[in-house]
Amino acid sequence: xxxxxxxxxxxxxxxxxxxxxxxxxxxxxxxxxxxxxxxxxxxxxxxxxxxxxxxxxxxxxxxxxxxxxxxxxxxxxxxxxxxxxxxxxxxxxxxxxxxxxxxxxxxxxxxxxxxxxxxxxxxxxxxxxxxxxxxxxxxxxxxxxxxxxxxxxxxxxxxxxxxxxxxxxxxxxxxxxxxxxxxxxxxxxxxxxxxxxxxxxxxxxxxxxxxxxxxxxxxxxxxxxxxxxxxxxxxxxxxxxxxxxxxxxxxxxxxxxxxxxxxxxxxxxxxxxxxxxxxxxxxxxxxxxxxxxxxxxxxxxxxxxxxxxxxxxxxxxxxxxxxxxxxxxxxxxxxxxxxxxxxx
Length: 344
Known about the structure:
This protein is of the alpha/beta class. It has 10 helices and 14 strands. α8 (270-280) links the parallel β11 and β12. α3 crosses α4 and α7 runs parallel beside α8.
């Protein structure tokens, strides 16, 4: 019979100690975003609420943006990068299968003893990462860095009307660490794989392996795999299913909607955000993040970027109680309540 494994009981509390973000230099308006598709600034504003988005330049790599946001988060938390025990990168636009983006970000940051792994849950990835980080801190202490970072422009086609004008690039990061009081509530999460085809990729990467190349080595008649989505179906799923996830996350933390200060959902579309807020039953006193209007949909980076914008605007303050809600490809979702941190 094998020896009994000893596991220390989970103890202590976790909280978000610092927040940092990075937005690419280039700001793109609707006219530029829809230059290859049949759309207009007026239609995009009316249907999505998006006015601008940031698109990364060649030197603004996934790792560079992630490290820039992470550095600010670590500074805001008031710790040395060497004290980071683990780095989690929530992303699905890392164009290298290996090594992970998180390992590169940890090295660039100076967290050279930290464990590092990437987490792929689409637009819900960052909230998943915060939940995993909180459990790690509660069980073993230390500090976990969660980085939501995406270069969506690497995975969308400027000629695909379902995605071309919607997405932007950017990064947001938080440090999760020990705290005297609970600062992160229990997560409510899941996935509906029966709906996975609603947000997907046109072809697997293996399709490129089997293409015919011309003498210079370029694929002949081959289109780079890109992201596609069935927008109306995703809209209906989100406004139908996500309000209940939000209510369950509040209940899991022992809170009512009246006790909430802010709502920071995934920034998919202003109409979706407003519909979910209304169906949860949020009172008018709750600040609702609508960063999508200026940043577009940045997938795994959207929740921390929206959190940053809400704090910078003064609509919410450090110490406020906020409901975070992520949802997207998979179709995956995650919701939890946090105490808002300071910003670096």
